[in-house]
Protein backbone atom coordinates (compact mmCIF):
# COMPACT_ATOMS: atom_id res chain seq x y z
CA UNK A 1 0.00 0.00 0.00
CA UNK A 2 1.08 3.62 -0.39
CA UNK A 3 1.18 6.32 2.24
CA UNK A 4 1.42 9.87 0.90
CA UNK A 5 3.10 12.50 3.04
CA UNK A 6 2.58 16.23 2.38
CA UNK A 7 5.00 18.76 3.86
CA UNK A 8 2.94 21.95 4.14
CA UNK A 9 5.93 24.10 5.04
CA UNK A 10 6.86 23.94 1.41
CA UNK A 11 5.24 22.46 -1.67
CA UNK A 12 7.04 19.15 -1.49
CA UNK A 13 4.99 15.94 -1.83
CA UNK A 14 6.59 12.56 -1.20
CA UNK A 15 5.22 9.04 -1.54
CA UNK A 16 6.24 6.26 0.79
CA UNK A 17 5.58 2.73 -0.37
CA UNK A 18 5.07 0.22 2.45
CA UNK A 19 4.22 -3.40 1.80
CA UNK A 20 1.55 -4.13 4.37
CA UNK A 21 1.80 -7.87 3.95
CA UNK A 22 5.55 -8.02 3.46
CA UNK A 23 7.61 -10.19 5.76
CA UNK A 24 9.27 -7.89 8.29
CA UNK A 25 12.25 -9.45 10.00
CA UNK A 26 12.64 -9.01 13.73
CA UNK A 27 14.62 -7.11 14.75
CA UNK A 28 14.67 -4.13 12.31
CA UNK A 29 16.71 -1.00 11.78
CA UNK A 30 16.57 2.43 10.21
CA UNK A 31 17.80 2.53 6.64
CA UNK A 32 19.98 5.59 6.37
CA UNK A 33 20.03 7.58 3.15
CA UNK A 34 22.95 9.56 1.81
CA UNK A 35 21.82 12.54 3.88
CA UNK A 36 22.26 10.73 7.20
CA UNK A 37 20.29 11.87 10.24
CA UNK A 38 22.25 12.12 13.45
CA UNK A 39 20.27 11.44 16.62
CA UNK A 40 21.53 13.34 19.65
CA UNK A 41 20.52 13.09 23.30
CA UNK A 42 16.89 13.92 23.85
CA UNK A 43 15.74 12.67 20.46
CA UNK A 44 16.63 15.79 18.48
CA UNK A 45 17.71 15.25 14.90
CA UNK A 46 20.42 16.99 12.93
CA UNK A 47 20.10 17.12 9.16
CA UNK A 48 23.52 17.73 7.61
CA UNK A 49 22.00 19.15 4.43
CA UNK A 50 19.12 20.88 6.25
CA UNK A 51 16.69 19.65 3.61
CA UNK A 52 13.14 18.39 4.01
CA UNK A 53 13.49 14.89 5.40
CA UNK A 54 11.61 12.22 3.52
CA UNK A 55 9.81 9.34 5.21
CA UNK A 56 11.69 6.08 5.24
CA UNK A 57 11.11 2.52 6.32
CA UNK A 58 12.49 1.68 9.73
CA UNK A 59 14.51 -1.50 9.50
CA UNK A 60 17.37 -3.14 11.36
CA UNK A 61 20.26 -0.90 12.42
CA UNK A 62 23.66 -1.70 13.84
CA UNK A 63 23.69 0.29 17.07
CA UNK A 64 26.50 -1.63 18.72
CA UNK A 65 28.62 -4.68 18.03
CA UNK A 66 29.69 -7.56 20.23
CA UNK A 67 33.22 -8.87 20.03
CA UNK A 68 33.65 -11.47 17.33
CA UNK A 69 33.75 -15.17 18.18
CA UNK A 70 35.33 -16.15 14.88
CA UNK A 71 38.86 -17.51 15.37
CA UNK A 72 40.07 -15.48 12.40
CA UNK A 73 39.03 -12.26 14.16
CA UNK A 74 40.82 -12.98 17.42
CA UNK A 75 44.12 -11.37 18.24
CA UNK A 76 47.16 -13.62 18.45
CA UNK A 77 47.30 -13.58 22.27
CA UNK A 78 43.57 -14.34 22.40
CA UNK A 79 43.92 -17.37 20.13
CA UNK A 80 46.86 -18.57 22.19
CA UNK A 81 44.88 -18.21 25.42
CA UNK A 82 41.91 -20.05 23.92
CA UNK A 83 44.12 -22.96 22.80
CA UNK A 84 45.73 -23.17 26.25
CA UNK A 85 42.31 -23.09 27.88
CA UNK A 86 41.06 -25.89 25.62
CA UNK A 87 44.12 -28.04 26.36
CA UNK A 88 43.73 -27.52 30.10
CA UNK A 89 40.02 -28.29 29.94
CA UNK A 90 40.53 -31.39 27.80
CA UNK A 91 43.02 -32.82 30.26
CA UNK A 92 40.77 -32.08 33.23
CA UNK A 93 37.70 -33.69 31.68
CA UNK A 94 39.48 -36.78 30.35
CA UNK A 95 41.30 -37.17 33.63
CA UNK A 96 38.03 -36.80 35.51
CA UNK A 97 39.60 -33.95 37.51
CA UNK A 98 37.20 -31.16 36.62
CA UNK A 99 35.19 -31.66 39.79
CA UNK A 100 36.91 -32.03 43.15
CA UNK A 101 36.22 -35.39 44.77
CA UNK A 102 37.18 -36.66 48.18
CA UNK A 103 37.63 -40.22 46.89
CA UNK A 104 36.96 -42.03 43.63
CA UNK A 105 33.50 -43.51 43.54
CA UNK A 106 34.79 -46.98 42.70
CA UNK A 107 36.85 -47.15 45.90
CA UNK A 108 33.89 -45.94 47.94
CA UNK A 109 31.76 -48.76 46.56
CA UNK A 110 34.45 -51.36 47.27
CA UNK A 111 34.86 -50.18 50.88
CA UNK A 112 31.10 -50.32 51.42
CA UNK A 113 31.10 -53.89 50.10
CA UNK A 114 33.84 -54.95 52.51
CA UNK A 115 31.97 -53.48 55.48
CA UNK A 116 28.73 -55.14 54.49
CA UNK A 117 30.36 -58.50 53.94
CA UNK A 118 30.99 -60.63 50.94
CA UNK A 119 28.64 -60.18 48.04
CA UNK A 120 28.00 -62.21 44.94
CA UNK A 121 30.62 -61.63 42.25
CA UNK A 122 28.03 -60.75 39.63
CA UNK A 123 26.68 -57.96 41.91
CA UNK A 124 30.20 -56.53 42.24
CA UNK A 125 30.62 -56.56 38.50
CA UNK A 126 27.32 -54.72 38.09
CA UNK A 127 28.35 -52.10 40.66
CA UNK A 128 31.72 -51.61 38.99
CA UNK A 129 30.07 -51.29 35.60
CA UNK A 130 27.69 -48.66 36.99
CA UNK A 131 30.64 -46.85 38.51
CA UNK A 132 32.46 -46.79 35.18
CA UNK A 133 29.32 -45.44 33.52
CA UNK A 134 29.17 -42.65 36.09
CA UNK A 135 32.79 -41.76 35.36
CA UNK A 136 31.98 -41.66 31.67
CA UNK A 137 29.07 -39.32 32.33
CA UNK A 138 31.48 -36.93 34.08
CA UNK A 139 33.37 -36.69 30.80
CA UNK A 140 30.23 -35.61 28.97
CA UNK A 141 30.26 -32.14 30.55
CA UNK A 142 28.20 -29.41 28.92
CA UNK A 143 27.18 -25.84 29.69
CA UNK A 144 24.04 -24.14 28.31
CA UNK A 145 23.60 -27.13 26.03
CA UNK A 146 27.10 -26.84 24.57
CA UNK A 147 29.57 -29.77 25.04
CA UNK A 148 32.74 -28.54 26.75
CA UNK A 149 35.11 -31.37 25.76
CA UNK A 150 37.16 -29.60 23.05
CA UNK A 151 37.96 -32.80 21.14
CA UNK A 152 34.26 -33.29 20.42
CA UNK A 153 34.53 -30.35 18.03
CA UNK A 154 31.19 -28.77 18.95
CA UNK A 155 30.67 -25.49 17.13
CA UNK A 156 29.70 -23.58 20.26
CA UNK A 157 32.54 -24.70 22.56
CA UNK A 158 34.89 -21.87 21.59
CA UNK A 159 32.09 -19.31 22.01
CA UNK A 160 31.36 -20.46 25.56
CA UNK A 161 35.03 -20.63 26.54
CA UNK A 162 35.67 -17.16 25.14
CA UNK A 163 33.06 -15.80 27.53
CA UNK A 164 35.05 -17.02 30.51
CA UNK A 165 38.33 -15.83 29.01
CA UNK A 166 36.96 -12.34 28.36
CA UNK A 167 35.52 -12.18 31.86
CA UNK A 168 39.02 -12.83 33.21
CA UNK A 169 40.99 -10.71 30.70
CA UNK A 170 42.25 -13.83 28.90
CA UNK A 171 44.08 -15.11 31.97
CA UNK A 172 43.77 -18.84 31.35
CA UNK A 173 44.16 -20.09 34.93
CA UNK A 174 41.63 -17.56 36.24
CA UNK A 175 39.15 -18.43 33.48
CA UNK A 176 39.60 -22.15 34.18
CA UNK A 177 38.94 -21.70 37.90
CA UNK A 178 35.88 -19.57 37.10
CA UNK A 179 34.52 -22.28 34.81
CA UNK A 180 35.09 -24.97 37.45
CA UNK A 181 33.26 -22.92 40.10
CA UNK A 182 30.38 -22.25 37.70
CA UNK A 183 29.99 -25.94 36.90
CA UNK A 184 30.17 -26.84 40.57
CA UNK A 185 27.55 -24.20 41.44
CA UNK A 186 25.24 -25.42 38.69
CA UNK A 187 25.64 -29.02 39.81
CA UNK A 188 25.03 -28.31 43.48
CA UNK A 189 22.12 -25.94 42.74
CA UNK A 190 20.64 -28.23 40.06
CA UNK A 191 20.49 -25.33 37.61
CA UNK A 192 20.21 -27.58 34.55
CA UNK A 193 16.71 -28.62 35.64
CA UNK A 194 15.62 -25.24 36.99
CA UNK A 195 13.56 -24.30 33.91
CA UNK A 196 11.05 -27.01 34.84
CA UNK A 197 10.43 -25.71 38.36
CA UNK A 198 7.18 -23.92 39.21
CA UNK A 199 7.56 -20.70 41.21
CA UNK A 200 3.98 -19.54 40.78
CA UNK A 201 2.95 -16.20 39.26
CA UNK A 202 3.74 -13.80 42.12
CA UNK A 203 7.12 -12.89 40.64
CA UNK A 204 5.96 -12.49 37.03
CA UNK A 205 5.52 -8.71 37.39
CA UNK A 206 9.11 -8.25 38.52
CA UNK A 207 11.03 -9.57 35.53
CA UNK A 208 9.96 -10.77 32.09
CA UNK A 209 11.35 -11.43 28.62
CA UNK A 210 9.87 -9.46 25.73
CA UNK A 211 11.07 -9.06 22.16
CA UNK A 212 14.48 -8.57 20.60
CA UNK A 213 16.82 -5.62 20.08
CA UNK A 214 18.27 -4.38 16.79
CA UNK A 215 21.01 -7.02 16.91
CA UNK A 216 18.71 -9.92 17.79
CA UNK A 217 19.45 -10.08 21.53
CA UNK A 218 16.45 -11.23 23.60
CA UNK A 219 15.38 -8.36 25.87
CA UNK A 220 14.79 -8.85 29.60
CA UNK A 221 12.88 -6.18 31.57
CA UNK A 222 13.47 -5.83 35.32
CA UNK A 223 10.83 -3.75 37.12
CA UNK A 224 12.08 -2.49 40.49
CA UNK A 225 9.09 -0.24 41.20
CA UNK A 226 6.99 -3.20 42.35
CA UNK A 227 9.09 -3.31 45.50
CA UNK A 228 7.68 0.05 46.55
CA UNK A 229 4.96 -2.11 48.09
CA UNK A 230 6.21 -3.13 51.55
CA UNK A 231 3.97 -6.19 51.41
CA UNK A 232 5.49 -7.44 48.17
CA UNK A 233 8.99 -6.55 49.36
CA UNK A 234 8.59 -8.64 52.51
CA UNK A 235 6.90 -11.41 50.58
CA UNK A 236 9.85 -11.58 48.21
CA UNK A 237 12.85 -10.74 50.38
CA UNK A 238 11.53 -10.97 53.94
CA UNK A 239 13.43 -14.13 54.90
CA UNK A 240 16.57 -15.88 53.72
CA UNK A 241 14.40 -18.67 52.37
CA UNK A 242 12.30 -16.24 50.32
CA UNK A 243 15.40 -14.43 49.12
CA UNK A 244 16.95 -17.71 48.05
CA UNK A 245 13.76 -18.61 46.17
CA UNK A 246 13.82 -15.23 44.41
CA UNK A 247 17.40 -15.76 43.26
CA UNK A 248 16.50 -19.23 42.05
CA UNK A 249 13.50 -17.90 40.14
CA UNK A 250 15.66 -15.16 38.64
CA UNK A 251 18.21 -17.76 37.52
CA UNK A 252 15.36 -19.68 35.93
CA UNK A 253 14.43 -16.65 33.86
CA UNK A 254 18.07 -16.23 32.90
CA UNK A 255 18.22 -19.85 31.76
CA UNK A 256 15.03 -19.42 29.72
CA UNK A 257 16.54 -16.40 28.02
CA UNK A 258 19.73 -18.33 27.29
CA UNK A 259 17.66 -20.98 25.51
CA UNK A 260 16.91 -18.31 22.89
CA UNK A 261 20.61 -17.75 22.19
CA UNK A 262 22.84 -19.21 19.51
CA UNK A 263 26.32 -20.22 20.69
CA UNK A 264 27.81 -20.46 17.22
CA UNK A 265 30.40 -18.02 15.84
CA UNK A 266 28.42 -15.10 14.46
CA UNK A 267 25.32 -16.03 16.47
CA UNK A 268 23.62 -13.95 19.15
CA UNK A 269 25.00 -15.25 22.45
CA UNK A 270 23.94 -12.65 25.03
CA UNK A 271 20.89 -10.78 26.36
CA UNK A 272 19.91 -7.13 26.63
CA UNK A 273 18.76 -6.01 30.09
CA UNK A 274 16.38 -3.09 30.64
CA UNK A 275 16.15 -2.08 34.31
CA UNK A 276 13.21 0.18 35.18
CA UNK A 277 13.92 2.08 38.41
CA UNK A 278 10.70 4.09 38.45
CA UNK A 279 9.21 4.20 41.98
CA UNK A 280 11.82 1.72 43.16
CA UNK A 281 12.73 1.71 46.86
CA UNK A 282 15.92 3.45 47.94
CA UNK A 283 19.37 1.84 47.97
CA UNK A 284 19.11 0.89 51.63
CA UNK A 285 16.37 -1.63 50.79
CA UNK A 286 17.74 -3.19 47.62
CA UNK A 287 21.50 -2.87 48.13
CA UNK A 288 21.92 -6.31 49.71
CA UNK A 289 19.73 -8.01 47.10
CA UNK A 290 21.45 -6.19 44.26
CA UNK A 291 24.94 -7.06 45.54
CA UNK A 292 24.12 -10.75 45.87
CA UNK A 293 22.49 -11.04 42.48
CA UNK A 294 25.26 -9.08 40.75
CA UNK A 295 27.69 -11.61 42.25
CA UNK A 296 25.64 -14.54 40.92
CA UNK A 297 25.52 -13.05 37.42
CA UNK A 298 29.19 -12.10 37.28
CA UNK A 299 30.42 -15.40 38.71
CA UNK A 300 28.19 -17.77 36.74
CA UNK A 301 26.91 -15.98 33.64
CA UNK A 302 29.98 -14.26 32.17
CA UNK A 303 29.44 -12.09 29.11
CA UNK A 304 25.74 -12.96 29.02
CA UNK A 305 24.60 -9.33 28.99
CA UNK A 306 25.31 -7.24 25.91
CA UNK A 307 23.95 -4.03 27.46
CA UNK A 308 22.43 -3.00 30.77
CA UNK A 309 20.04 -0.10 30.15
CA UNK A 310 18.79 1.69 33.25
CA UNK A 311 15.69 3.82 32.68
CA UNK A 312 13.71 6.18 34.91
CA UNK A 313 16.77 6.53 37.14
CA UNK A 314 15.97 8.42 40.38
CA UNK A 315 18.34 10.80 42.13
CA UNK A 316 19.49 8.15 44.61
CA UNK A 317 20.69 5.89 41.79
CA UNK A 318 24.04 7.61 41.77
CA UNK A 319 24.55 6.71 45.42
CA UNK A 320 23.66 3.08 44.67
CA UNK A 321 25.98 3.14 41.70
CA UNK A 322 28.83 4.16 43.97
CA UNK A 323 27.98 1.27 46.30
CA UNK A 324 27.77 -1.33 43.52
CA UNK A 325 30.77 -0.07 41.58
CA UNK A 326 33.37 -2.04 43.60
CA UNK A 327 31.50 -5.25 42.77
CA UNK A 328 31.52 -4.63 39.01
CA UNK A 329 34.37 -5.27 36.64
CA UNK A 330 35.44 -2.47 34.32
CA UNK A 331 34.09 -4.55 31.48
CA UNK A 332 30.69 -4.77 33.16
CA UNK A 333 30.63 -1.03 33.85
CA UNK A 334 31.22 -0.28 30.16
CA UNK A 335 27.95 -2.02 29.29
CA UNK A 336 25.73 0.30 31.35
CA UNK A 337 23.51 2.91 29.71
CA UNK A 338 21.65 5.32 32.03
CA UNK A 339 18.78 7.59 31.06
CA UNK A 340 16.47 10.01 32.84
CA UNK A 341 12.67 9.59 32.90
CA UNK A 342 12.17 12.12 30.10
CA UNK A 343 14.47 10.21 27.72
CA UNK A 344 13.16 6.65 28.04
CA UNK A 345 11.72 6.14 24.55
CA UNK A 346 14.53 8.07 22.86
CA UNK A 347 17.09 5.88 24.61
CA UNK A 348 15.39 2.52 24.10
CA UNK A 349 14.78 3.12 20.39
CA UNK A 350 18.54 3.40 19.86
CA UNK A 351 18.83 -0.25 20.86
CA UNK A 352 15.37 -1.80 20.32
CA UNK A 353 12.98 -1.45 17.33
CA UNK A 354 9.90 0.55 18.34
CA UNK A 355 7.61 -2.36 17.43
CA UNK A 356 9.51 -4.46 20.00
CA UNK A 357 9.34 -1.85 22.79
CA UNK A 358 6.37 -2.28 25.20
CA UNK A 359 3.72 0.42 24.91
CA UNK A 360 4.34 1.61 28.49
CA UNK A 361 7.81 2.68 27.37
CA UNK A 362 6.61 4.51 24.27
CA UNK A 363 6.78 1.59 21.83
CA UNK A 364 4.18 -0.15 19.69
CA UNK A 365 4.27 -3.57 21.37
CA UNK A 366 1.04 -4.50 23.18
CA UNK A 367 0.30 -7.70 25.02
CA UNK A 368 -1.76 -10.20 23.01
CA UNK A 369 -1.92 -7.78 20.09
CA UNK A 370 -4.40 -9.06 17.51
CA UNK A 371 -4.26 -5.95 15.31
CA UNK A 372 -0.60 -6.03 14.40
CA UNK A 373 2.06 -8.68 14.03
CA UNK A 374 5.57 -8.49 12.62
CA UNK A 375 4.18 -9.55 9.24
CA UNK A 376 1.54 -6.81 9.06
CA UNK A 377 3.40 -3.61 8.34
CA UNK A 378 6.82 -2.07 8.46
CA UNK A 379 7.43 0.96 10.64
CA UNK A 380 8.13 4.16 8.70
CA UNK A 381 9.80 7.30 9.97
CA UNK A 382 9.85 10.94 8.95
CA UNK A 383 11.38 14.08 10.39
CA UNK A 384 9.06 16.95 11.29
CA UNK A 385 11.02 20.19 11.16
CA UNK A 386 10.56 22.97 13.68
CA UNK A 387 7.58 25.19 12.89
CA UNK A 388 6.26 22.91 10.15
CA UNK A 389 3.12 20.85 9.51
CA UNK A 390 3.13 17.39 7.96
CA UNK A 391 0.33 15.07 6.91
CA UNK A 392 0.44 11.30 6.56
CA UNK A 393 -2.13 9.97 4.13
CA UNK A 394 -3.21 6.34 4.50
CA UNK A 395 -5.31 4.95 1.63
CA UNK A 396 -8.64 3.30 2.47
CA UNK A 397 -9.85 2.28 -0.97
CA UNK A 398 -11.68 -0.94 -0.12
CA UNK A 399 -15.13 -0.25 1.33
CA UNK A 400 -15.85 -1.83 4.72
CA UNK A 401 -12.19 -2.54 5.45
CA UNK A 402 -10.90 -1.91 8.96
CA UNK A 403 -7.80 0.26 9.11
CA UNK A 404 -5.48 0.36 12.14
CA UNK A 405 -2.52 2.63 12.77
CA UNK A 406 0.15 3.30 15.40
CA UNK A 407 1.93 6.63 15.65
CA UNK A 408 4.50 8.09 18.01
CA UNK A 409 6.46 11.33 18.09
CA UNK A 410 9.64 11.25 20.14
CA UNK A 411 9.30 14.05 22.65
CA UNK A 412 5.82 14.90 21.36
CA UNK A 413 4.82 18.54 22.05
CA UNK A 414 2.92 18.69 18.75
CA UNK A 415 -0.67 19.29 17.67
CA UNK A 416 -2.35 16.24 16.17
CA UNK A 417 -5.62 15.35 14.46
CA UNK A 418 -7.12 12.53 12.35
CA UNK A 419 -9.79 12.67 9.65
CA UNK A 420 -11.22 10.56 6.84
CA UNK A 421 -11.50 12.27 3.46
CA UNK A 422 -13.68 10.48 0.85
CA UNK A 423 -12.56 10.32 -2.75
CA UNK A 424 -15.99 11.59 -3.82
CA UNK A 425 -15.82 15.38 -3.62
CA UNK A 426 -19.52 15.46 -2.83
CA UNK A 427 -19.10 13.47 0.38
CA UNK A 428 -18.29 14.92 3.78
CA UNK A 429 -15.01 14.68 5.63
CA UNK A 430 -15.30 12.67 8.85
CA UNK A 431 -13.40 13.75 11.97
CA UNK A 432 -11.80 10.65 13.47
CA UNK A 433 -9.85 12.49 16.19
CA UNK A 434 -10.28 16.18 16.93
CA UNK A 435 -7.15 18.28 16.90
CA UNK A 436 -5.38 18.49 20.24
CA UNK A 437 -2.00 19.42 21.69
CA UNK A 438 -0.10 16.37 22.89
CA UNK A 439 2.38 16.80 25.73
CA UNK A 440 5.89 15.45 26.06
CA UNK A 441 4.91 12.49 28.25
CA UNK A 442 2.23 11.16 25.90
CA UNK A 443 2.45 7.51 24.87
CA UNK A 444 2.02 6.13 21.35
CA UNK A 445 -1.35 6.56 19.65
CA UNK A 446 -3.34 3.65 18.28
CA UNK A 447 -6.61 4.25 16.48
CA UNK A 448 -8.88 2.57 13.96
CA UNK A 449 -11.43 3.45 11.27
CA UNK A 450 -13.85 1.46 9.13
CA UNK A 451 -14.80 3.24 5.92
CA UNK A 452 -18.15 3.12 4.10
CA UNK A 453 -16.72 4.56 0.88
CA UNK A 454 -13.32 4.84 -0.78
CA UNK A 455 -11.03 7.54 0.57
CA UNK A 456 -8.05 8.10 2.81
CA UNK A 457 -7.27 8.71 6.45
CA UNK A 458 -5.16 11.82 6.99
CA UNK A 459 -3.01 12.21 10.10
CA UNK A 460 -1.93 15.84 10.59
CA UNK A 461 0.95 16.87 12.84
CA UNK A 462 1.96 20.47 13.55
CA UNK A 463 5.28 21.13 15.26
CA UNK A 464 5.20 24.52 16.96
CA UNK A 465 8.38 23.90 18.92
CA UNK A 466 11.88 25.00 17.92
CA UNK A 467 13.18 21.44 17.68
CA UNK A 468 12.88 18.82 14.98
CA UNK A 469 10.81 15.75 15.84
CA UNK A 470 11.08 12.12 14.83
CA UNK A 471 7.73 10.65 13.80
CA UNK A 472 7.33 6.87 13.63
CA UNK A 473 4.20 5.16 12.37
CA UNK A 474 2.76 2.01 10.85
CA UNK A 475 -0.65 0.95 9.62
CA UNK A 476 -2.52 -2.19 8.66
CA UNK A 477 -5.72 -2.63 6.65
CA UNK A 478 -5.42 -6.40 6.20
CA UNK A 479 -6.98 -7.40 9.53
CA UNK A 480 -10.03 -9.39 8.56
CA UNK A 481 -10.69 -10.51 12.13
CA UNK A 482 -11.68 -7.11 13.50
CA UNK A 483 -15.35 -6.46 14.01
CA UNK A 484 -17.29 -3.41 15.19
TrEMBL record:
Compositional bias annotation for Basic and acidic residues: 105-132
Pfam families referenced in this protein's UniProt entry, alphabetically: CRAL_TRIO (PF00650), CRAL_TRIO_N (PF03765), GOLD_PATL1_C (PF25099)
Region (Disordered): 41-70, 105-133
GO MF term set: lipid binding
Domain called GOLD: residue spans: 375-477
Subcellular location: Cytoplasm; Membrane
Ranges where the CRAL-TRIO domain occurs: 196-369
Keywords: Cell cycle, Cell division, Cytoplasm, Lipid-binding, Membrane, Transport
Gene3D superfamilies with a match to the protein in the record: CRAL-TRIO lipid binding domain, GOLD domain
Major place of residence: cytoplasm
GO biological process, one term: cell division
GO cellular component, one term: membrane
Highest taxon listed in the record's lineage: Eukaryota
Record InterPro entries: CRAL-TRIO_dom, CRAL-TRIO_dom_sf, CRAL/TRIO_N_dom, CRAL/TRIO_N_dom_sf, GOLD_dom, PATL, PATL1-6_C_GOLD
Family to which this protein belongs: Belongs to the patellin family.
Protein name (Swiss-Prot/TrEMBL): Patellin-4
Amino acid sequence: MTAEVNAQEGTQKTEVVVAATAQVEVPQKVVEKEEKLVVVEGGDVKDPKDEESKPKTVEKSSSYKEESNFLSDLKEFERKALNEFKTKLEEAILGNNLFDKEEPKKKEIEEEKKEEGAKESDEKEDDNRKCEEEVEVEKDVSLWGVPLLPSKGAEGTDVVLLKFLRARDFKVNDAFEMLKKTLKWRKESKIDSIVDEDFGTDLASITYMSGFDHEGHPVCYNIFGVFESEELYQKTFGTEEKLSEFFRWRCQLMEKGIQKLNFKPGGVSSLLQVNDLKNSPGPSKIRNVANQFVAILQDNYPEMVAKNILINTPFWFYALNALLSPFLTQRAKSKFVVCRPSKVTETLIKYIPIEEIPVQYGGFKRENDSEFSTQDAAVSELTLKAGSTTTIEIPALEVGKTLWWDLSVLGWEVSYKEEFVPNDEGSYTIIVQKGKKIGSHEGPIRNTFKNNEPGKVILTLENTSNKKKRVLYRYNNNNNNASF
